[in-house]
Amino acid sequence: MLPCPSSVRSQSMQANNWLISSGGRRGALVDLFRESTSPVRSRVVVTDVSRLSAAGQHADEFELVPRISADNFLSETLRISKKHGCSTIVPTIDPEIAVLARARAQFRQHGVDIWVSSPQVAELGWDKWDLYRWLIEAGYPTIDTQEIAESRLVPFAGRVVAKPRTGSSSIGVLIVDNVESLRVSALTDDYILQRFAPGIEVTVDVAVDERGTVLATVPRRRLEVRAGEVSKGVTIHVPEIELLVRDMVTSLPGAYGVLNVQVIYDPETNSPKILEINPRFGGGYPLSHAAGGDLIGAMLRSKTGDTASETWRPGTVMLRYDEAKFYADQEFVLSPWS
Amino acid sequence: MLPCPSSVRSQSMQANNWLISSGGRRGALVDLFRESTSPVRSRVVVTDVSRLSAAGQHADEFELVPRISADNFLSETLRISKKHGCSTIVPTIDPEIAVLARARAQFRQHGVDIWVSSPQVAELGWDKWDLYRWLIEAGYPTIDTQEIAESRLVPFAGRVVAKPRTGSSSIGVLIVDNVESLRVSALTDDYILQRFAPGIEVTVDVAVDERGTVLATVPRRRLEVRAGEVSKGVTIHVPEIELLVRDMVTSLPGAYGVLNVQVIYDPETNSPKILEINPRFGGGYPLSHAAGGDLIGAMLRSKTGDTASETWRPGTVMLRYDEAKFYADQEFVLSPWS
């Protein structure tokens, strides 16, 4: 059991009180949560390890938490949830998924739900080699993949991509025209090799309820990427992609909450391939929401048995720009170099 | 003379009608221009080479222009200015600075001002080697720099930075602990070598009127950078930096408009060094503005002879996050892969 300081007088849990964990710069997501439950007044609490969080400035309450790797990350997160009566925790970054996935049952005993998938799905989201093996076994189309040991013996011909089997963004990714120009021997054992797949990258936002029912699938195409995050995108209507993702997510061992699935689609062969699963809100979720796909509302309605599929508008374009929150920080007045 | 199609019925020029050139994702800047001239109703026209411009969605009018390198970039920009009665053009990206700097006098004959410095200052902003020589000659502190040919003969000792003498962001930049680990012979002749300078990077937003009077200097520290652009920053009060930048900008051969100067400051030695000049609005300008340093208003007031220095608040923190404009684009409904 998690320790829970008895000195904290907790509010009663409210269905429309949210805790967005590791809020970072997700200011727009905080706003969407607040709007999703109107006209009922909702409250959004944001936690972060740094006080310099834009999402924290958007929130009704902002609380600092220890690092995810710290012993008291979970107990502090639970304490803050109870203090503010938050009945739902929404994780936002990869490193906390596995930690929160393992704690979900315990949090439920305290009346706090976490929109996070099972530890098995967390693992498939984290480890590309495990995901590849699961997809092949379950019969879903994906990119041909090898462990680095295998690729040293019988490498793929043609253009290949080498990447760490775990990890986010494009850190450590190498693309070469043929495997001979790759120093495979120099790559560490945690690398995998993938055949380069021609096509267009499509991200699908998915909402899944507690019984594993898929409530929504919204495919959006990345038109421009900036710092690993979509900066221009558009929702697109491609039934092949939605059907594949809906089927695959239903087969996952315990998907729950809002997640996103990366797909490579080759318009010439009409074939989508599954590339990656992120069992958390994608950074580009506000586009699906703006297109009418309110996955937050769909999750809430599913609690009352309403599992109708969300409808949304294709051809909705998102053009991102930098907005900012500003505040006065006396520390930098006293010492500019602090 | 620039050709100007006679078929366009131009509006009369309005002091508070703006053309923001190459608007891209500068949505926040468009908003600041509109607010700067309230309560008088202002209009902001944005141009861009792509229809997918967030700034274009913020503008009162959005117009496509040819590429900067195209023969008719200038004539189209002038035509659009006149069509909408824009008396001032505000450039925003490096590649257009030199082109607009050379055209400024011609545009003035049509009643259109461009907030851009002289071609000589444009050159100093573009070419790091030219800037170094100018700074040394004028007696301003900067980073020790060598042309690559010189560095092949007598290289600097210790940690060095190699970078293309022209170019933006950090493209092509190499940092090594000692010059021996750098294959200097492999670098092309357009590279320069700089001694690595310890310290903290500070950007100073500067407004300069037509007589070369500096109206404002707002130093802001970069706390976090994302995709080459400040994502967290804070205004700081450091008189040594402001005095140096004010003096240097006054000595420049024809600074005009809002520009920014990059400085490296070493708190241990109390010595600022000038690193770079960008003769255009910096991406982080909204922070200076939020701190009370309204450089747009200062430029406008200078027209009526008011050249009082802008005051602003140190310790103003900016935390950026992604906002977006959304619109329906029928083209992607008809063909998702267009």
From TrEMBL, chains A, B:
InterPro entries found in the cross-reference section: ATP-grasp, ATP-grasp_PylC-type, ATP_grasp_subdomain_1, PylC_N
Source organism, top-level taxon: Bacteria
Keywords carried by this UniProt record: ATP-binding, Nucleotide-binding
Record domain ATP-grasp: where: 132-304
Pfam families found in the cross-reference section: ATP-grasp_3, PylC-like_N
Keyword ATP-binding carried by entry: yes
PROSITE patterns reported in the protein's UniProt record: ATP_GRASP
Keyword DNA-binding: no
Molecular-function annotations in GO: ATP binding; metal ion binding
Protein name: ATP-grasp domain-containing protein
Organism: Cryobacterium cryoconiti
